[in-house]
Amino acid sequence: MAFVSDFIKRHTLIAGALTLTAAGFASRFLGFFYRIFLSRTIGAEGLGLYQMIFPVYGICFSLCAGSIQTAVSRLTASEPEHAEKILRTGLLLSLALALPIAGVIRKNADLIASAVLLEPRCADLLSALACAVPITAVHACVCGYYYGKQKVHIPAASQLAEQLVRMSAVFLIADVCRRRGTEPTAMMAAAGLVIGEAGSAFFAVLSFLLFEKKAASDNREDGPGHDPGSGLPADPDCRFSASSIFRAVRDTIPLFRSLTVLAAPLAAGRLVMNLLQSAEAVLIPSRLVVFGLTRAQAVGIYGVLTGMSMSFIMFPSALVNSLAVVLLPSVARAQSAGNDSGIERSVAVSLRYSLYMGILCIGIFTVFGNDIGTQVFRNRAAGVFIMVLAWLCPFLYLSTTLGSVLNGLGMTGATFLHNLLAILIRLLFVYFGIPRFGIAACLWGMLAGELTLSLLHFFSLMKAVRFRPDAWEVIVKPVFCLAVALGIFRLFPESLPFSDALPPFFTTAFRAGAVCAVYLLMLLLFHREHRG
């Protein structure tokens, strides 16, 4: 136990990333079963309708939650002594934006569904989505506070709580529908989204009230200014009075200004990005109709792409997303301390593990993608999409972590411009390519956009940090290890002794796991030789 405690203290970045990764993998593992359940309960078309509301959700999140979460995290990391005040100010700012936005969406759901999403059937889903917006804002601020303090276990646990509550709610709703003889619809999934967000927010807020507030209270009671006879701190700022309220408001104004300065450019950038992503989500089904499909077929293919195939492609990103979350405050703290070597170390970590994971995923998804699509979702198109999108993985994971490092360095303008160019490339492929080549043009656009984004992030960091990447370490070594792992896999017979007794997917998962195990062992072997 002492060794583990010492490791965590000395390697807070790795320990935090591993904690979030464990929770992320557990959550995504549960999410697989959830996606499979949805695809078989509401069908590809219902899943497509459900996916179409997420661009609107993304716009709301960028305005009142995501950018403020990043600002709270960064400010808490650089000013830990004001952490609680930063959180309170962030909550006020976030809710002041979230509540009006939720009201507008709920009141104009029909108009947004028909005029913006070009799908009137999404109106009820948008009304339900509006209820989740303020809840998401609260959850994001509390998580930003914990990320800034490098206490990632609470956000990790709340992530799991969200998935468990969402799945339980949807399973219960589906069971009620089955008993009543009614057909489950996409509204069931939207209701699950709201209930899951509420569960995770409740968990995060309750954890803060039980543990953080108690710790702060204990510190005050142990302090020299405590009056044990009164049961209150001697500090007059803690008593309710006109002067204390005035001082609290006066102290909040600078924090409000600091949060706004940090969050505003992030919000503007994310808003533009989410608007363009919304345009992409609307254009894909409509351009597929121009290609020659019916509206139902177009929405179904969109559901297969975003709700089935991309869920598998994004599964391994639990590691890189976790790394990205802890990289931002770590880089911000290193920058404020003038620790250039710490920044270079963070960049090296982001490059190494993003490419390790991305290169492995190319091998896994190109070899097993077709089996995954047909065995899990019972949809051959899903398997084809997974095999094509496998080449997206290294660039997708790399752009995620490098973008977080750039934001930690305060280069939010650069990340915005890079993301803007990437999404514009995707839109060009969608608008001009789909009517001629079908959904394949959308896949090509995603590959071109992520390749451009990762390269732009990479070259910007090279100018800012002056690091020298080791091509052997981040490219040649993982490619060689993958080739060896796949070569060993080819030596095994197609039918294993126990394969007939298991469902086909478990056999595929066992084979993919064997490749991953050999790949990891090869990386560890090279790492030990390098250290030796």
Please summarize what this structure is:
The chain has helices at 2-10, 12-41, 43-52, 54-78, 83-107, 109-116, 123-148, 153-180, 186-222, 242-291, 295-314, 317-336, 340-376, 380-389, 393-408, 412-437, 439-465, 471-491, 504-531; strands at residues 226-227, 232-233. It has 532 residues and is mainly α. Strands 1-2 form a two-stranded antiparallel ribbon.
SSE order in H/E notation? HHHHHHHHHEEHHHHHHHHHH
* Share in β-strands: under 5%
Question: Could you give a short account of the major beta sheet?
Answer: 2 strands, antiparallel
Count of individual beta strands: 2
Radius of gyration computed on alpha carbons? 24 Å
Placed side by side, the strands forming the largest sheet appear as: 1-2
| Low-confidence runs | 1-11, 220-242
Structural category is: mainly alpha
Globally, the shape reads globular
Q: Number of helical runs?
A: 19
The helicity comes to over 70%
What does this structure look like?
The structure is a single chain. The protein is mainly alpha-helical and 532 residues long. The chain has one domain (8-212, 245-469). The protein is built from 19 helices and two strands. β1 (226-227) and β2 (232-233) form a beta hairpin. It is globular, with a radius of gyration of 24 Å. It starts with a helix and ends with a helix.
Structural key phrases:
single chain, 532 residues, mainly alpha, 19 helices, 2 strands, 1% strand, disordered N terminus
Task: Give the helix/strand layout.
Blueprint (H helix, E strand, L loop, with lengths): L1 H9 L1 H30 L1 H10 L1 H25 L4 H25 L1 H8 L6 H26 L4 H28 L5 H37 L3 E2 L4 E2 L8 H50 L3 H20 L2 H20 L3 H37 L3 H10 L3 H16 L3 H26 L1 H27 L5 H21 L12 H28 L1
